[in-house]
Sequence to fold (82 residues):
Amino acid sequence: MEKVDDLIDVLASHINAIVSSGKEDGNEVTEKTKALAELMSARAKFQTQSNTAEAISGGVWSAVAENAIGSSAKLAPIVTAD
Fold:
């Protein structure tokens, strides 16, 4: 994911430089801005899916622990014991 974030930063900086210079070639800024938007959208979707998967996973494990032990409060001393 770090490489995707780096690519987003580089592309945004590149677009900014083109606009600042006033040397746009045809639809260059438009096309690169579309690419940037698609990249950012894909990253956001991936992040949302990742967060959802983690939440579901955490919820499933919590439910399993509560069912097996009877309470998540009883699980804490077991998990944190040295």
Remarks:
- Confidence is low (pLDDT under 50) at residues 71-82.
